[in-house]
Amino acid sequence: MATAIVDLFDLLEGIPAGAWVAISERQHSVLAYGADAQTVLSEAQSKGEDQPLIVRVPEQASSMFF
Amino acid sequence: MAKISYDYTPVELAASEPYPQGITMYRPLIRATITASNGNSLPWLVMPDSGADACLLPVSLASLLKLDVLRLPKDLTGGVGSSANVTYYDTVTLNLGSGLEFKAYAGFTAGMDNVGFGLLGQNGFFDKYNVEFLHRQKRFTIEATRE
């Protein structure tokens, strides 16, 4: 069974809508967040995490249709 | 035949006119590692979507992977609420864990930036693997062996 992502989503609480977030899966923590994905990745890498999981907090927590 | 099982991810949606109490939706998200044709890779969330013609990723990910999108083949794609989205294509490798790895000719579009995660669509994913959605059990499976 693969790891549930819900544990990672718990980390997003309190982070502004629309923000890109870099998560350390090893440390189970948020390394950086902000409006620009490249800046967020660079900040995470400067903290020693070469491969952070990058996710985005939705602008609105609403239903999605594709 | 071996199947890899994944849990649905519950997502709490805010109260709204149709859902005054808010509502929990369950999305079949998977943590993948995506490697571009230039060898750069990052972990990213993706979701199987049999309604998508192909695999589709946020264009921001292309930048993070240092792909020069202006040198990639492009076309216009559309979805609910949008059309004529410029979409750039690269052959990426997706590793979904548990030995499940495959190549897909995937699109990168700004239309997916608001969503943040990627879609695993028909070309590149559903044409390779059988997927079983067991929504009532809140899990889904992917057959580890390609058809």
The low-confidence runs of chain B, each spanning 5 or more residues with pLDDT under 50, are: none
- Principal-axes geometry of chain B comes out as globular
Question: Quick one: how many beta strands of chain A?
Answer: 3
Q: Outline the biggest β-sheet of chain A.
A: 3 strands, antiparallel
The end-to-end distance of chain B, rounded to whole angstroms, is: 11 Å
* Overall pLDDT confidence of chain B: 93
What order do the strands of the largest sheet of chain A run in, or round the barrel if closed? 2-1-3
Characterize the largest beta sheet of chain B: strand count, sense, and whether it forms a barrel: 7 strands, mixed
Shape type of chain A: globular
| Chain pair with largest interface | A-B, 29 and 42 residues
The portion of residues forming beta strands of chain A comes to: 15-25%
Straight-line distance between termini of chain A: 27 Å
Q: What percentage of the residues of chain B does DSSP assign to strands (E)?
A: over 45%
Instruction: Give the H and E element order of chain B.
Output: EEEEEEHEEEEEE
The number of domains of chain B? 1
Could you explain how this protein is built, in words?
The complex is a heterodimer of chains A (66) and B (147). Chain A has 66 residues and is an alpha+beta fold. Chain A has a domain at 16-56. Chain A is built from two helices and three strands, in the order αββαβ. Chain A has helices spanning 6-9, 37-46; strands spanning 20-24, 29-34, 53-56. Chain A has a three-stranded antiparallel beta sheet with strand order 2-1-3. In chain A, strand 1 (20-24) and strand 2 (29-34) form a beta hairpin. The longest helix of chain A has 10 residues, at 37-46. The mean pLDDT of chain B is 93. Chain B contains one helix and twelve strands, in the order E-E-E-E-E-E-H-E-E-E-E-E-E. In chain B, strands 4, 5, 6, 7, 8, 9 and 10 form a seven-stranded mixed beta sheet that branches. Chain B has a three-stranded antiparallel beta sheet with strand order 1-12-11, with no helix packed on it. Chain B is mainly beta and 147 residues long. Helices cover 4% and strands 50% of the residues of chain B. Chain B has one domain: Acid Proteases (Cathepsin D, subunit A, domain 1, Beta Barrel), CATH 2.40.70.10. Chain B has one helix at 59-64, and strands spanning 3-7, 9-13, 23-27, 30-35, 41-48, 56-58, 74-79, 82-95, 101-109, 118-120, 131-134, 139-143. The A-B interface holds A 1-6, 8-9, 20, 25, 37-38, 41, 51-66 and B 4-7, 9-14, 16, 25, 27, 29-31, 33, 41-45, 49, 51-52, 58, 60-61, 63-64, 79-81, 96-98, 113-117, 119.
